[in-house]
Design a protein that fits this description.
Layout (H helix, E strand, L loop, with lengths): L18 E3 L5 E2 L35 E3 L4
Antiparallel strand pairs: 1-2, 1-3
The protein binds zinc ion.
Zinc ion binds next to loops.
């Protein structure tokens, strides 16, 4: 988990990559989308609109950390 900082252009996020808000631990799962922001199922994190923020605590996208696959 350590060492991941922000999202530059070179960060590779897979279409199934889940990310966790480091403020409130909300998890964005592409398989579930986001009902708060009306994000359709199957939307990768990288395809979220630029103004998307954590639906739970309004943290910006750079507050999200990649969750390693189990
Ligand atoms: Zn949050």
């Amino acid at each position: 988990m350590a060492g991941f900082q922000g999202f530059g252009h070179d960060v590779e996020l897979g279409p199934d990559t889940r990310l966790e808000c480091k403020i409130c631990w909300y998890v964005y799962d592409p398989a579930e989308g986001d009902v708060v922001w009306q994000i359709p199922l199957g939307t990768p994190f990288s395809q979220l609109p630029p103004h998307w923020t954590c639906p739970n605590c309004s943290a910006t996208q750079d507050q999200f950390m990649v969750m390693p696959d189990e």
